[in-house]
Predict the 3D structure of the following.
Amino acid sequence: MALQLRSGNDDEDVIASINTTPLVDVMLVLLIIFLITIPVVTQTVPLSLPKELNLPRQTKPENIEISVDREGGVYWNAQPLPDHVALVERLKAAAARSPQPEIQVRGDVKTRYEAVGRVVYACQRAGLVKVSFVTEPPPKS
């Protein structure tokens, strides 16, 4: 319906109505555009993400526990290491053993990721294959 004006007497009432057809057309076009473009925007790489698993830790005498404290200090089986070079040398000696021991990395919750990353990188440089992270289970709610 459009705005209709009658000619003639000024005494007659003006009939005013709004035509909503163009508004509905525009809204439907916008809806179709959004439905088409949303899948394009939300593309992701298909991954199989790991599930949370709470397995008990197998503590063997040959396993090596490397701890990283809040300040980035590194400990070899609870003994502090003086520097990064000492860590790499000990890891190279451990990698030469047969079978290789499992390295269990424990990082403080407040430590910087960089400090833990250095330990993992040192394990990689030494040629160690079995590196695991020790965590606490999530709180039960």
User: Anything to note?
Assistant: The radius of gyration is 34 Å. The mean pLDDT is 81. The longest strand covers residues 64-68. Residues 21-41 form the longest helix (21 residues).
